[in-house]
Amino acid sequence: MADRTRDLLWSDVDTLYGAILAHPFVTGLTDGSLPHETFRHYIVQDAHYLRGYATALAVCAAKAPTDDDTLMFAEHAAGAIAAERELHADLLGALGLTSEQARELPVAPATRAYVSYLLAAAYGGSYAEGVAAVLPCYWIYGRVGEHLVGAGSPDPVYQRWIDMYAGEEYHAVVEAVLDATDRVGAAASTAELARMREHFTTTSRYEWMFWDGAYRRETWPV
Q1: Averaged confidence pLDDT in the chain
Q2: Number of C-beta neighbours around residue 105 at 10 A
Q3: Each residue of 26-36: pLDDT tens digit?
Q4: Is 60 tagged catalytic?
Q5: Quick count: other Cβ atoms within 10 Å of Cβ 14?
Q6: HEC-encoded secondary structure of 137-173
Q7: What does the alpha-carbon distance between residue 3 and residue 122 come to, in Å, rounded to a whole number?
Q8: What is the C-alpha to C-alpha distance for residues 199 and 180, in angstroms, rounded to an integer?
Q9: In angstroms, what CA-CA distances link 59 with 73, 93, 139, 144, 203?
Q10: Cross-referenced Pfam families, in alphabetical order (predicted)?
Q11: In this model, does residue 88 exceed pLDDT 70?
């Protein structure tokens, strides 16, 4: 259907998604040129991010109008914490860092800004707005994984990351959230749909900024 909310939202960020695919952090995963130190910075920041993201998902669960959506987002909030503990512990170990050491490293500017925006949208906005704000993290990662898996990576650490986001289990999760997005978007007022689009575009931009910050191993300038 051309009038699904997901299609409208994606039409707003299609060019932005192209910039994500062209970013040297993303291309470096498949050609193996990305330094491990850079990927380690990314994983550390992703661990910080996922703790905040889990809170945003829990807020979506609390605001959900149906039991099914409450259950879905509550499970995803728990899953984000599990991923931070399990996947990242595995990847960090391969990169020479423990989870405890990673937790003590500072939260970078893009990470802090992204999480702050997510929490503001989830707490301060409607359920539909919260769903739109958290959606890019689901959807863009799924699209990136799907794009990268064909090329693969000569680096086993990067291949493990690609395989997770290209996997059927992850894509089933994304599809469930997209279905929820279509439902709430169809019921949204014109003003609420406009806010959904604004949140979706903003957090999609933060996705680019997150990878860019990792590529630059961003730190606070002062």
Answers
A1: 94
A2: 14
A3: 999 999 999 99
A4: no
A5: 8
A6: HHHHHHHHHHHHHCCCCCCHHHHHHHHHHHCHHHHHH
A7: 25
A8: 16
A9: 9, 31, 19, 26, 17
A10: TENA_THI-4
A11: no
